[in-house]
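Bumping with the actual sequence this time:
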Amino acid sequence: MILKKRLAREIVGQFHSAHAARDAESHFEKVVQGKEAPDEMAELAFSFSNPLNGPNSDLVKAKGRGPIFVAPGDDWHEVLPPSLLIIDLVGVLVRTGMASSRQESKRLLTQLAVKVGGYKETGGSILVNPTDRIEIAPNTLIKVGKRRWIKIVDADTK
């Protein structure tokens, strides 16, 4: 691995600069070897103060604060903190380009290839079935596969 890294550093240094080579090496060590979140990633903005009229409002199923019904016809409700939104994770993956279709997005979720907030998704905020709801807060990270990331940001604070 040491020789491969040195070769990569020399090639990047020849075509770009020594500084770019050091940056590329540190990015590789952090993201690929350390499995940490990269510094730059795709962002998806939601309005947490007015989610039903803000950007990407079609992906919001419900907002915290008071009783909510997750889907029409549901006979149960719950109270969410005001900073949380319930989103359509399948739609989020398609909107950000992490999946080419809703079917591929559902397949990724079924195969446990999606982590929300550090947990494999199969529901709630710890393991996501395609039919389950996902609660998110500002700055939530969504990891798709090994190296694709999405960051949820608050459109009101940008």
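The tokens above came from a reply further down the thread. The chain has four helices and ten strands.
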